[in-house]
Amino acid sequence: MDVPVLAPQVDETRIVAAGLVSPSTADPLWWRSAVIYQVYIRSFADGNGDGTGDIAGVRSRLGYLRDLGVDALWFTPWYPSPLADGGYDVSDYRAIHPAFGDLAEAEALIREALELGIRTIIDVVPNHISHEHEWFKAALAAGPGSPERERFWFRDGVGPNGDEMPNHWVSNFQGETWTRTTNPDGTPGQWYLHLFTPEQPDLNWNHPDVRKEHEDVLRFWFDRGVAGVRIDSAALLEKDPELPEIPDVVEVGKHPNVDRDEVHDIYRSWRAIADSYEGTRVLVGEVWMPDTQRFANYLRSDEMHTAFNFDFMARPWDATQLRESIVSMIAAHAPVDAPSTWVLSNHDVTRPVTRYGREDSSFAFATKRFNTPTDLDLGTRRARAAALLSAALPGSLYIYQGDELGLPEVEDLPDDTRQDPMYFRSNGVDPGRDGCRVPLPWSGQHEPFGFSPYAGTAPAEPWLPQPEGWAKYTVEAEAHDPSSMLSLYRAALSIRRATESLGDGALEWLDSEPGVLAFSRGGGFVNVTNLSGHPIDLPEHEEILLSSTELVGPTGQLAQDSTAWLRTQH
Ligand code: NOJ
Question: Distance (Å, rounded) from C-alpha 316 to C-alpha 327?
Answer without folding.
Answer: 15
